[in-house]
Amino acid sequence: MPPSTDPTLSVSDLNRLARQALERDIGEVWVEGELSGVSRPASGHVYFTLKDASAQLRCALFRTRARFVAAPMRDGDRVKVRGRVSLFEPRGDYQLIVEALQAAGEGELLAALERLKRRLAAEGVFANARPLPYPPRHLLVLSSATGAAIRDVLAVLAARWPLVDVTLIPVPVQGREAAPGLIAALGLLNRQSALDPRRDAVLITRGGGSLEDLWAFNDEHLARAIFHSRLPVMSAVGHEVDTTLADLAADRRAPTPSAAAEQLVPDRRDLTQRLAALEGRLQRAVQGRLDREAQRLDHLRARLRHPGEVLSRQRHTLAELDARLVRALGQRLAAERQRLAQLQRRLAARPPQREVEQAGMRLDAARARLDQAIQHALARQRDRLAGLARELQAVSPLAVLGRGYAILQDDQGQVVRRAQDTHPGQALSARLGEGRLRVEVKRRLKK
């Protein structure tokens, strides 16, 4: 046959296309059937087969959703599941990814529980996360006095940490009286804790059972009482797959009563081993420190010298320093004597008296030159002043007035330059070369 022209898919491509088609075209559905082959590996996921008289369906309930399933999930139980049809690509297995599971016939009850759970979560009732004291000094246990849960708790506490004080508050853990009894006991413990601060933690616990057996722990008022408790609360109700409202409202949840006891206190055997390990480390550290200090002591002892030897060495050093000082002083004194002799020779070659006489002669000559320069400068300045006076006299208005001219001024002191600036009868002042005249205008002439 000729090769096909259609594109060839890999197995992975085909499985991926099939998964996408199933998830897109079918989506989320409710399916009812009988449980078979329930498997719970260490991962926390739950795998099972859902079957009826003529067919079966592989199902996967992942850990994040399995913790909200209250049904016990035993082989042969009839259940209703809600999930998404999908395909596990590595093996090509057609499967249902389960989101919720409930026993058949209990649908309305569980639906109401889911609604209540969502409402309490929205109000923050499940937001408690206070740390529990580790280990608690006085543990208060709310449980049945005759149940297996309290025996498991006490046995684990005695084996791991017998130092903890335990007080059992017997309460009903099943039936109509269970929720009110738990609420009343929890309120009493909170009131008494103010008088006895050693009471620092509460454990609410019971063993496994059916959905009806555990229903009291789904009470709304009990969940609110746990949320408002001043004492931190741990809840360990049922088995690992059972999750109640009390578990969600508590500060911490344990999957079983025994697991709760293990979480509350340390194991004394582990602490004994840790103490032994720390003791060994301490001994090794001390021994190492002693070895190092002994080595340091040996080193210091090797460096230590006899005091007489030290004094002898210091005397020798002092003698050397004394000799060096004497030599240095002698050399300095010789150098100073040589410098003094040189200065004396220079002084004898040029005595101060002769220097003073020569300086006096230079001073007399400078004074004579100064007097002569001053006389010359005064003569030049007198000649220059006389020339400036002549130039000033030549341009002075007083010189013009001396040649017979006059300056007319009105009463405001303004100089009269034109006849048109006056009027008959106006009084004027005439300045002459010598003196002034007071004149009056009789008539204006054009020329």
TrEMBL record:
Pfam families: Exonuc_VII_L (PF02601), tRNA_anti_2 (PF13742). The keyword Cytoplasm applies. InterPro entries: Exonuc_VII_L (IPR003753), Exonuc_VII_lsu_C (IPR020579), OB-fold_nuc-bd_dom (IPR025824). CDD domains: ExoVII_LU_OBF. Its EC number is 3.1.11.6. It is found in: Cytoplasm. Residues 318-346 form a coiled coil. It comes from the Bacteria. Residues 128-439 form the Exonuclease VII large subunit C-terminal domain. It catalyses: Exonucleolytic cleavage in either 5'- to 3'- or 3'- to 5'-direction to yield nucleoside 5'-phosphates. Keywords: Coiled coil, Cytoplasm, Exonuclease, Hydrolase, Nuclease. Heterooligomer composed of large and small subunits. HAMAP family: Exonuc_7_L. Belongs to the XseA family. This is Exodeoxyribonuclease 7 large subunit.
